[in-house]
User: Which sequence fits this backbone?
């Protein structure tokens, strides 16, 4: 047993010490399912926009492990050694290390396609399945109960104790790593967070969990004190700017939509018995996976390189639609983007000189939202988004509403607020203590991507019609 | 992409008059889809059970278009939630659908979540959906009896094109 060291762009030196637990983590890191993450990029198609953003989910996983370890140190400092639970801390660190092992190629774009095909297996369930793989079970050797416990922790509706919240909450290790790593590797100069200051000012508190306004339980979470409100504001705004600049960049999203359409088309052809026209052999990992999406073996053969490597074969497919989509992705020929929100802002969102309500920002914002909503509904009603007879869509839709801070209950995730210990010693929602966060609107991009000039004209006409 | 639209969300809210909470809206529409009296919204399993991103977007659009309103409320203990309201109550045109919406509107939030989650898991092929719900949501075990009672109410609704999974 000896200490293992990894140089990391975000954390510098990440060590796996000579003790049994961290040596076990090192072994897990070296299993086939974890090494597969070396071939799954953290940001998928962002590399087509930010050439430096080619970092992998393996590097991110190591970063999340290290961040979880640092957060465990925070918890130990706050709880004191007597109350600190090393066993649960080990569980959190191990879960942090393997949390992404269930990601497919081009992660979210692939999942979107599988959801539409109704063959999606939830990321968490896939993770649990992979954790039962023989080499993973063997790697966990000295800690044989960890795979099952990690599965339970990931699957839990909300974190019950502070260790679990290190893996799933507003200040979880995942986000604290990806925000820093994605910023650094993309090269965007915004979105820096005051990491060290946040860590120094985190506290452990018991917080409520709610469902439609009813308190349905309690959990433990990391909360901040008043000194770190500016850092928390920066954290929230940094996330917003990552959405705008990186995650929802129009070209990245356009490529993701093409990729989802391509996977759906291939799956449909395979399902309908037209594999010969697809352009891939029956032994290709994608074909094997689509024929048996529940099985873990074919899934683990899939990664970004397998997909990218198949694009040339697919672009020579007998099926013209598959050939076009594959060629477009390979050559970065994205459908033409019509940013409906931007166009509607230009038409309805700017103050009109002389108008009585010229300065009424709220009213103008509502007009823009209404206009965008009308376009979205009409695009659906008029069949703009329906594929043609060959399965090729004339227009692709990208709707990306994301709120960097949710004040409302969110029907998908509990545990959304950041709590602040106020001067009265009580916990308060950050939005109640920060005017900046309170006034922060959700990021809502709505775009339509057109295959041809005529498709683009149809979209532009629709916008004109609505904005009249 | 789901087939459901903002108008469909408005129809559900109008049938209810008002619906308290985004999760309740999700579970109500998921129930309609399970009973095949829905609007074509597509659901996947998340932390609180069946969840549709498309429904969230359509609900936001229904608010933006003025079909329904969404009011933010704060509970006595500090938690925030929203209420979807219609300017007027109006049946959807299907008595069975309206009855399901009415029962869901009045139901206990946790019982509704568990009941619809169990039906969703059964629809996806789970052999013992209640045990699965219990293992996935052990902290809500205490509400299982109430959830089963609620589900019996749903099963009593007549005129559904396809019966709900018989799991109680």
Assistant:
């Amino acid at each position: 047993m000896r200490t293992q060291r990894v140089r990391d762009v975000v954390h510098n030196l990440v060590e796996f010490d000579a003790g049994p637990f961290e040596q076990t983590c090192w072994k897990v890191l070296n299993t086939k399912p974890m090494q597969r993450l070396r071939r799954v990029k953290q940001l998928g198609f962002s590399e087509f926009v930010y050439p430096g953003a080619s970092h992998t989910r393996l590097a991110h996983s190591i970063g999340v492990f290290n961040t979880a370890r640092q957060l465990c140190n925070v918890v130990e400092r706050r709880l004191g050694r007597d109350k600190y639970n090393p066993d649960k801390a080990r569980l959190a660190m191990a879960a942090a290390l393997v949390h992404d092992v269930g990601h497919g190629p081009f992660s979210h774009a692939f999942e979107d396609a599988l959801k539409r095909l109704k063959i999606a297996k939830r990321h968490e369930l896939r993770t649990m399945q992979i954790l039962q793989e023989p080499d993973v079970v063997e790697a966990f050797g000295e800690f044989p109960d960890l795979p099952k416990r990690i599965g339970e922790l990931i699957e839990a509706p909300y974190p019950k104790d502070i260790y679990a919240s290190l893996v799933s909450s507003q200040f979880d290790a995942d986000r604290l790593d990806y925000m820093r790593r994605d910023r650094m590797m993309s090269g965007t100069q915004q979105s820096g967070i005051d990491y060290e200051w946040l860590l120094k000012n985190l506290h452990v508190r018991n917080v409520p969990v709610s469902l439609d306004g009813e308190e349905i339980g309690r959990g433990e979470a990391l909360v901040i004190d008043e000194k770190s409100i500016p850092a928390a504001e920066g954290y929230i705004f940094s996330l917003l700017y990552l959405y705008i600049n990186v995650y929802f960049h129009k070209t990245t999203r356009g490529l993701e939509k093409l990729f989802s359409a391509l996977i759906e088309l291939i799956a449909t052809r395979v399902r309908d018995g037209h594999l010969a026209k697809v352009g891939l052999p029956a032994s290709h990992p994608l074909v094997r996976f689509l024929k048996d999406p529940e099985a873990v073996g074919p899934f683990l053969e899939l990664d970004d390189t397998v997909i990218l490597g198949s694009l040339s074969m697919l672009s020579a497919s007998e099926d013209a639609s598959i050939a076009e989509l594959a060629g477009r992705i390979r050559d970065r020929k994205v459908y033409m983007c019509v940013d409906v929100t931007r166009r509607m802002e230009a038409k309805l969102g700017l103050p009109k000189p002389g108008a009585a309500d010229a300065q009424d920002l709220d009213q103008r914002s509502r007009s823009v939202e209404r206009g965008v909503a009308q376009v979205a509904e009409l695009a659906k009603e008029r069949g703009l988004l329906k594929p043609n007879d060959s399965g090729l869509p004339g227009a692709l839709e990208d709707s990306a509403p994301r709120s960097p801070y949710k004040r409302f209950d969110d029907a998908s995730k509990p545990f959304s607020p950041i709590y602040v210990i106020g001067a009265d010693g009580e916990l308060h929602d950050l939005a109640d203590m920060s005017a900046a966060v309170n006034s922060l609107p959700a990021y809502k991009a709505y775009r339509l991507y057109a295959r041809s000039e005529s498709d683009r004209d149809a979209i532009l006409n629709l916008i004109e019609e609505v904005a009249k | 992409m789901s087939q459901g639209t903002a108008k469909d969300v408005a129809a559900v809210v109008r049938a209810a008059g008002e619906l308290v909470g985004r999760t309740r809206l999700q579970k109500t529409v998921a129930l309609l889809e399970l009973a095949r009296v829905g609007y074509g919204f597509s659901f996947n399993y998340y932390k609180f059970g069946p969840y549709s991103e498309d429904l969230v977007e359509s609900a936001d659009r229904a608010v933006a278009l003025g079909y329904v309103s969404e009011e933010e409320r704060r509970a006595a203990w500090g938690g925030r939630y929203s209420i979807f309201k219609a300017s007027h109550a109006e049946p959807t045109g299907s008595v069975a659908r309206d009855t399901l919406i009415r029962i869901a509107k009045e139901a206990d939030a946790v019982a509704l979540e568990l009941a619809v989650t169990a039906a969703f898991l059964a629809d996806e092929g789970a052999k013992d959906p209640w045990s699965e719900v219990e293992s996935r949501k052990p902290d809500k075990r205490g509400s299982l009896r109430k959830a089963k009672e609620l589900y019996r109410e749903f099963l009593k609704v007549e005129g559904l094109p396809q019966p709900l999974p018989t799991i109680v």
